[in-house]
Amino acid sequence: MKDTIIDFMNKKDNGLIISDMPTGFGKTYNCVQAIYEYIYIYSGTKKQFYITTLKKNLPIEDLKDVYKQNNNKNFNKDVLVIKSNYDYIYDNFLEVNIPIKFQDDVYYEIERKLKFLKNSEIKFENTLLDMKLEAEKIIRNDLEPKFRSNILKIIKKDLGKKKEDLINGLKNNADYKWIVQIYPTVFTDDYKVYLLTIDKFLLKNTVLIKPSYYFIGDEITDNSIIFIDEFDTGKETVERSLIDRALSSKNDYIKLFLKIYNTFQNHIFTKELIELGNDIKNDKYTFNSLIKESQRIFKEFKLQYNYKTVESSIDTRQSFLFNDNSYHTMLRNNNNYIRAAFDEENQKVNIYFEKRKEYYENRHQDDIIIYSLVRNISSFLNKFRFMILTLSKNYSNYINDFRKENEDKFSIESAMSTIYREFSFSKEEIGILMDELCTDFVVRDNINTEIPDMTFYNNGF
Fold this sequence. Notes:
The protein is α/β, with parallel strands linked by helices. It has 20 helices and eleven strands. The two termini are 26 Å apart. The model is unreliable at 314-331 and 436-461 (pLDDT under 50).
């Protein structure tokens, strides 16, 4: 089995190999042997990811044993076990010496709560169990993000704001090496092997010195080798993760589209932004092109009117929007066909969920196709995102051309903020626009001229 895996790793640039051996056959053992030999016998350079459904199933000790058997002391240099930031704080915070200038109120609150959580004399049950869960929640959702933000603020002040200066300072300055001891993901790109759960693989990797990103969309996984343990169970985990993320989002994509459309129609943009927005190389992503596309979508799908679902055919408690902007709902009584029709009398668009017979009896040539609306808005938002990112880079360069060498550089992030203000986007709307696909482009230096359609239906999971 090991030889088959290694042969596949060395000879294939892409593809899928499935090992359906029964439990106890040695799949994990053969995988970690293959991971090690690929690096040290075959001099492989592709990054390797081993993902599984549960943390307890990560082959950390198995892989350590392979390194020990080969008298190789590079395990900690080669292998990164990727955890949540809460887990890193829980495991490492009390084990390192943190300089006084980082010891603010947040630091002391984390220290106090961790000492409570790690007190072996406390039996966590009943009320104490509730206190334990509350302490974990506060660290995870409030204290840890604040602590990390404070670290970033101080090191930017001490080392400078450039990514290169921050990396060099964290690597070479002894005063900051404790940061890497707590957050090893600071240098995620430097490792060769990554062990993590499927959930973590699908969630954002939050690091200090570059924007958060999804592994599945970042260049770190480009041309990489990915081992998926318990493949069948893993599919369920992926599906659950997608649904959880969709259910946690209450975003109205039509409302967001209408905001962009209305801004294009009514707002007077600065001359520089218009010129730079129309100077984008690919015509599909220019200001003028997107203005025309937004006008077409608005007119074709009658978005000047309210869309109302006829609720008798659906369970309104169980309808949701997938993170790829596609509409899903739990239907009643086999009403599996969706139809939308303009109600001229009441000046609105009604959405019907009907049985097959009713659908074909009631449909008209001028009905609005909801799935087409979803696809069009999804495609438009992807193009708009790309335009924002490219325009931000161009606008940053434009401003910096007029600045002197001793002046602070106008960053891409500052350029984005300027453009956001032109559209009056809220924080939540910015989150929608800059999530997933866009983090990929922010991280990468070479912005492509084409963006892929990453929707669930085209890519599956």
